[in-house]
């Protein structure tokens, strides 16, 4: 089973006395949706950038399937194993939804036999109709753009999907639908899904919540309601 793990992870920006977190030992397993919760400025995005291989740990290490990211190589890890979804979607706005997904495949070097059909069906599966697929992304709603961003992340075949405040720009209802999608990706496609959020409702829906408070991550496991 795919697994991402931090071992005694510690980080600070300039001054080691201003440590953001220390001795962090967390596990992220395939098939589960995780929420990283915490107040503004607590270090959530920083933590995400470390597990995404965008920055290096100051102390400790991060392991992907028992091999450290440093050994795998951060660039290789980002290219093959992980995809990021941002609050502001980060799509090519002058391209269509279809072209955005197509370019994601090209950038990650993924080739599909029936590429056209694969892209069309992937977008349809999240509710982006063929009509919408060929419109410029700038003409789509925020929720539709975030769906395109999720498909972009999915098609690369990455096992880890991380998202930083993915519902931050969306209304409540649309945000819930986006979280439904992430949940499906975790539970049905057996990916590791990690969402950074300060939304308690998202945290409640996640299988596991790690709340960063006073430089320490506190773990909460979702209560399963009995039928
Ligand atoms: N590049 C940087 N250099 C120095 N300090 C930084 C840098 N990036 C962030 N910080 C500081 O590190 C702390 C944590 O920032 P981070 O963005 O990780 O918090 P966050 O929990 O994601 O906050 P928010 O919910 O507001 O996005 C903050 O005090 C921030 O000012």
Automatic annotation (TrEMBL):
InterPro entries registered for this protein in UniProt: AAA+_ATPase (IPR003593), ABC_transporter-like_ATP-bd (IPR003439), ABC_transporter-like_CS (IPR017871), MacB-like_ATP-bd (IPR017911), P-loop_NTPase (IPR027417)
A molecular function GO annotation: ATP binding
Residues annotated as domain ABC transporter: 4-227
Database matches in PROSITE patterns: ABC_TRANSPORTER_1, ABC_TRANSPORTER_2
Keywords: ATP-binding, Nucleotide-binding, Transport
Family: Belongs to the ABC transporter superfamily.
Database matches in PANTHER family: CELL DIVISION ATP-BINDING PROTEIN FTSE (PTHR42798:SF6), LIPOPROTEIN-RELEASING SYSTEM ATP-BINDING PROTEIN LOLD (PTHR42798)
Name of this chain's protein: ABC transporter ATP-binding protein
């Amino acid at each position: 089973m795919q697994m991402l793990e931090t071992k005694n992870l510690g980080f600070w920006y300039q001054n080691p006395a201003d440590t953001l977190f220390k001795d962090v030992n967390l596990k992220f397993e395939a098939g589960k949706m995780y929420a990283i919760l915490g107040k503004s400025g607590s270090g959530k995005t920083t933590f995400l950038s470390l597990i995404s291989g965008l920055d290096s740990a100051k102390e400790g290490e991060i392991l992907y399937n028992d091999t450290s990211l440093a050994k795998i190589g951060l660039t290789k890890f980002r290219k093959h194993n992980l995809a990021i979804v941002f609050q502001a979607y980060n799509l090519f706005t002058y391209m269509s939804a279809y072209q955005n997904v197509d370019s994601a495949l090209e950038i990650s070097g993924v080739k599909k036999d029936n590429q056209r059909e694969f892209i069309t069906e992937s977008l349809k599966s999240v509710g982006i109709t063929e009509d919408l697929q060929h419109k410029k992304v700038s003409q789509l709603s925020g929720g539709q753009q975030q769906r395109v961003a999720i498909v972009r992340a999915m098609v690369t075949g990455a096992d880890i999907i991380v998202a930083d405040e993915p519902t931050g720009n969306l209304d409540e209802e649309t945000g819930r639908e986006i979280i439904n999608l992430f949940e499906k990706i975790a539970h049905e496609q057996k990916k590791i899904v990690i969402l950074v959020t300060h939304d308690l409702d998202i945290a409640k829906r996640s299988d596991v919540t790690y709340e960063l408070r006073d430089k320490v991550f506190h773990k909460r496991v979702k209560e399963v309601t009995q039928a």
